[in-house]
Amino acid sequence: MKNLYVVMGGLGKALLWTSLIPSLCEKDEVEKISVMSPWPWLFEKHNQIESHEPLLDFRYFPQLEKYDKIIYHEPYLSDYLKEKDQHMLDNWADAYGIERVSPSPRLDPPVVGDDCFELSERCDKPYYVIQFTGGMMREGMHQLCPRDYRPDLVEKLNAKIKSKFPNLSCVCFRHEYEPKPSGTITFKSKIESGVLGILPLIVKSEFVVCIDSALMHFAACVKDKPTFVLWNTNQTTPSRIGYDFQENILCDTELCIDTSADEVFDIIELALK
Questions:
Q1: Where along the chain do the CATH 3.40.50.2000 domains lie?
Q2: Backbone angles phi, psi at 98, to 5 degrees
Q3: Which residues does residue 4 pair with via DSSP β-bridges, in sequence order?
Q4: Among 11, 24, 6, 3, CA closest to 193
Q5: Are the C-beta atoms of residues 245 and 221 closer than 8 Å to each other?
Q6: How many Å apart are CA 66 and CA 112, to the nearest integer?
Q7: Residues 6+ apart with CB under 8 A from 58
């Protein structure tokens, strides 16, 4: 059976979906499966992916006829919206007719040249990685989104971390149109797939602090990496799309995340002792 699995949505969601690949191979009785996604390069090096199609209009691409079935299930267009405690992976697994699995995304080591990404400054010291904005386009740097960490609290948290760990630099994973925390080094993709360059940076980092966005899912590919995730449960929760092996810090607000910098820092400091 040669099936094509269609995975829509954001980069982090596609990373989470990789947790299901071994089970889907077993279900289809094949060594490798095929996937269509807005992020085909994400699957390029995966040893259980046979082919990775770019997102196409099904009506006009006869090369898709080679697949026995084109399988598409979108959790955000299903009962997942009503079942507030169901993890997205469980929703996918139920729809595919496979056993539920623990969230365990995997990327085979990507080959990303230095010409695909850059850091805004040279980073010769040990460092930690942050992402405090993400998830949607915004009209300008000052527009806040519900999953963002409030900028003044970002500044306070970074100041506390640097006071405790003065030898650490800070690498910030962000878009150019998102605010840049002071004293940070920006990671920048030169091409779309250059974002994969963040993975080896995470591997070499001391720890990761982020919101529910792409960096959280990249960090989950590095199982032993201390990772601290800030959540606005007014939007979603770790039981819905997160990882229980990461340190999840919750708040519930109509606006952006407003957990005090002291609380976040105390959790980080305690975990790193």
A1: 114-272
A2: -120, 165
A3: 34, 70
A4: 11
A5: no
A6: 30
A7: 64, 70
Structural tokens at position 240: 């819905």
CATH fold of 114-272: Rossmann fold (3.40.50)
Q: Which residues contact 134 (CB under 8 A, 6 or more apart)?
A: 145, 147, 148, 174, 175, 178, 211, 213, 214, 215
Question: What's the token pair of residue 249?
Answer: 């810090």
- Is the full-model pTM beyond 0.85? yes
Task: Provide CB contacts within 8 A for 163, sequence distance 6+.
Answer: none
Q: What are the CB-based long-range contacts (under 8 Å, 24+) for 93-101?
A: 93/20, 93/23, 96/20, 96/23, 96/24, 96/27, 96/71, 97/27, 98/20, 98/23, 98/24, 98/26, 98/27, 99/23, 101/19, 101/20, 101/22, 101/23
Packing angle between helix 21-28 and helix 88-96, nearest 10 degrees? 10
pLDDT of 45: 86
Backbone angles phi, psi at 228, to 5 degrees: -120, 120
Mean pLDDT by 10 residues, the chain (273 residues): 93 96 97 95 92 80 88 93 91 97 86 74 94 72 84 97 97 90 92 88 96 96 95 95 97 94 98 93
Identity of residue 161: I
Mapping DSSP to helix (H, G, I), strand (E, B) and coil, where does residue 167 land?
Answer: coil
- Determine how β-strand 117-119 pairs with β-strand 185-189: antiparallel
- Cα end-to-end distance, the chain, whole Å: 51
